[in-house]
Amino acid sequence: MTDAVIVDAVRTPIGKGKPNGTLAGVHPVDLHAHALRSLVERTGVDPARIDDVISGAVGQIGEQSMNTARWAALAAGLPESVPAVTVDRQCGSSQQAVHFAAQGVIAGAYDLVIASGVESMSRVPMGSQVAGRDPFGTQVAARYPDGLVPQGISAELIAAKWGLSRAQLDEFSAESHQRAAKAWADGKFAGEVAPLKAPGPNGVPADVTTDETVRPGTTPEILAGLKPAFRADVWEQRFPDLGWHVTAGNSSPINDGAAALMITSSETAKALGLRPRARIHSFAVVGDDPLYMLTGVIPATRKVLARAGLSVGDIDAFEVNEAFASVVLAWQAEIGADLAKVNVNGGAIALGHPLGGSGARLATTLLSVLEQTGGRYGLQTMCEAGGLANATIVERLD
């Protein structure tokens, strides 16, 4: 059977959301184009050979609308003959793009394809695609008569259900910052990040070379001083037993960023003189309770491990998206993974979570970690709005 391999992966630095983020002045098409252009330059492939560009974006409105992947491909200088499509599986959009790309290669529909993602949360604010309208309709409301909740409340429900304390969430979050800061200091991100120039928050040109939301001095004690981010009368009345532990400090921030991976088959890679870095071993997607919403990473991990015929102990590195600290800690409690192998270079709480770009970012970082540690198998998983989750296992190739 034809396999699917990753020959290279690259990401932009991740910027803070406006008003102080350096990437806030960069149009999302241009930000995305930088990742695509950098990937093509790194691989040296003839861009006319690319069969498709499959990209994730969550806020598909305004400057990220009208099939933003197509405009990014053109902005990157790819030939007009190269098609592109934008997909939306919420936060897992670009991880789903990786799955679609791999499926296309395995099926023989593609020889060479780019999977990527972008989100400029500065320029396309989170939730703006709803535009004040009801996205659910009457029948969803009838199925869930008590109503669904925002993700922050889901994170609180998860903390309560798994008995996670505020101290546990803050300790995990501080560790994320410390790991990310050390990884940057040790040059661990140098091979995956493509620096770029940006106008900066005041229009002054700036070189953007690192992730902007990493705070090396973060400690649990500092985080303990933050107030709950989602506490409100309406939620206290509905959920009187919540501990209100979720804060801005143990949640992912607002960010801008993009990432891209080149996916092909072993045969095509050999014919083009490309060295595969990893094989996409197995992948899975699940649906889960839309009230808790963010717990899908648990069944997704179990499903992809069963599909791969592997156990938790076989996995050398995990990338679990840190949308909220409670998500990762609940996942760890159920899956039993060693936290020393989870997000070893820091996670989204420190590095950032540019929604539609995060799945591709996790994959890019996972490849780096496997190569840095000599690990064989890596697993990434991502919680997604609506009670969805993707999971992917990759196998590093020598």
UniProtKB/TrEMBL annotation:
InterPro entries: Thiolase (IPR002155), Thiolase-like (IPR016039), Thiolase_C (IPR020617), Thiolase_CS (IPR020613), Thiolase_N (IPR020616)
Annotated ranges, domain Thiolase C-terminal: 275-396
SUPFAM superfamilies named in the record: Thiolase-like
Record bears the keyword ATP-binding: no
Enzyme Commission no: 2.3.1.16, 2.3.1.9
Thiolase N-terminal domain span: 5-266
Region Disordered: start-end pairs: 195-217
Alphabetically ordered keywords of this record: Acyltransferase, Transferase
Superkingdom, taxonomy of origin: Bacteria
Active site per UniProt: C91 (acyl-thioester intermediate), H353 (proton acceptor), C383 (proton acceptor)
GO MF term set: acetyl-CoA C-acetyltransferase activity
Sequence similarity: Belongs to the thiolase-like superfamily. Thiolase family.
Protein name: 3-ketoacyl-CoA thiolase )
Classification lineage: Bacteria, Bacillati, Actinomycetota, Actinomycetes, Pseudonocardiales
